[in-house]
Amino acid sequence: MSAVEIDSLIIRLLPKVLADRDLGDGRIFTKLHLNHLWALSCMYAGECYDEELLAQRVPYHLPPQVQMVREVGT
Question: For the segment 8-61, what is each residue's pLDDT rounded down to a tens digit?
Fold first, then answer.
């Protein structure tokens, strides 16, 4: 899957994941958020891809007020 396709999925699904109160208050992006975003994006794309590709692209799309837990990108 190309970076452009992954970016479009992130843009579409990230607000839903951050708004999910079961995952937290939306101010900190955690491994749980990443897992949820990856599963949703696989479902929307109709295929799964390496979760690390998603982890590399997410920081470019997080709103400025949302912090990313260091372990997510590693």
Answer: 999 999 999 999 999 989 999 999 999 999 999 999 999 999 999 999 999 999
The rounded distance, in Å, linking the Cα atoms of 41 and 6 is 8
Residue with tokens 């749980």: 32
Q: How far is CA 43 from each of CA 25, 28, 58, 70, 71, rounded to the nearest angstrom?
A: 24, 24, 17, 26, 24
Q: Are strands 67-68 and 28-29 parallel, antiparallel or unpaired?
A: parallel
What pTM, to 2 d.p., does this model score? 0.89
What are the structure tokens assigned to 10, written together?
């992130």
Distance CA 25, CA 1 (A): 30
